[in-house]
Design goal:
Blueprint: H1 8-18, E1 33-37, E2 40-47, E3 52-56, H2 68-74, E4 78-83, H3 99-112, E5 118-123, H4 125-136, E6 141-147, H5 158-164, H6 172-175, H7 179-187, H8 194-205, H9 212-216, E7 222-229, H10 234-243, E8 262-270, H11 278-289
Parallel strand pairs: 3-4, 3-5, 5-6, 6-7, 7-8
Antiparallel strand pairs: 1-2, 2-4
Helix pairs in contact: 2-11, 3-4
């Protein structure tokens, strides 16, 4: 499970790259709706028209973090942007944070809204959730876009694993000076739950995982996307692509040897700015529109 930031050094790097606009926003009336899903009051927003695309944010973020990229996607698709359990305007409930459970929430929302088969686009934590939606609920998925997400915990660089161990409720005081905290308390139904969110995220990140088998079972064409300076080496994204059948043979003059899935390593980007960079959407849209 990937989060946006790990400790104070990461907070500084992240905020320099992103600025404050994606998190620190004034309190305002929620522009979206709520659905009663699996014991949650699951918050979602709908933007644009066309084929449905479910958009899933990263850890400690919310729907608003995509900023102009959400608007760019909504020019072409009907975007259903979801605040996952305990994030944004979706209050936490008494259960662990796990990509599997959150994937079940997303699938239930798709069915609740009668969307049929949709494309699911997830970044970081949302990418892990998107993977599980495809593996656990293939009947609701058309295509997947998975951005900056690992499928095996030991793929993270060693320093990232060490820093993940520092995420807990004790980090709250330090976080109070960051736009992430300010953005959370501006919209969360229970702002006092922020320590609980950090505790649950910290516990989740200590759990070992390897989703290789789930990837091999995916039926949906999948775009694997990563920054060339991500939290893990580019070779991990290549391995992910390989599990989808990619990189096994020449594509051929006519393209007949291409796999149904795709791989994109975006140059000059990091985990902390890829989701806000227009290149992410520019690369994803042709894949999403292919064959439609």
């Amino acid at each position: 499970m990937t989060l946006l930031c790990r400790n104070s050094a990461f907070f500084v790097l992240f905020l320099v790259a992103l600025g404050t606009s994606a998190f620190a926003q004034p309190k305002q009336k929620a522009p979206g709706d709520y659905a009663k899903i699996n014991g949650l009051e699951l918050y979602y927003e709908t933007h644009g028209k066309g084929r449905p695309l479910v958009l899933l944010h990263g850890g400690l973020g919310s729907t608003s973090m995509f900023g102009d990229n959400l608007k760019a996607l909504a020019k072409h698709r009907k975007v259903i942007a979801v605040d996952l359990q305990g994030h944004g305007r979706t209050a936490d409930i008494d259960r662990p944070l796990s990509v599997e459970l959150m994937a079940d929430d997303v699938a239930a929302l798709i069915q609740h809204l009668k969307l049929g088969r949709v494309d699911v686009f997830g970044y970081s934590l949302g990418g892990g959730v998107a993977l599980q939606v495809g593996a656990r609920h293939p009947e609701v998925v058309n295509k997947l876009v998975i951005v900056s997400a690992v499928f095996r915990r030991n793929a993270y660089y060693p320093e990232i694993l060490a820093q993940q161990g520092q995420v807990n409720e004790g980090a709250v005081e330090m976080m109070k000076q960051t736009p992430m905290y300010q953005g959370y308390v501006a919209v969360a139904p229970r702002p006092q739950d922020f320590p609980r969110l950090l505790k649950k995220i910290g516990e989740a990140m200590q759990q070992d995982f390897d989703f290789s088998k789930q990837i091999s079972s995916l039926q949906a064409p999948t775009l694997v996307m990563a920054a060339d300076a991500d939290l893990f080496p580019p070779s991990h994204a290549v391995e992910f692509f390989g599990l989808l059948g990619g990189g096994k043979r020449d594509g051929g003059w006519d393209g007949s040897g291409r796999p149904k899935s795709r791989l994109a390593i975006l140059p000059g980007l990091t985990h902390y700015n890829i989701f806000a960079d227009p290149l992410m959407v520019a690369v994803a849209l042709p894949f999403l529109q292919e064959g439609t």
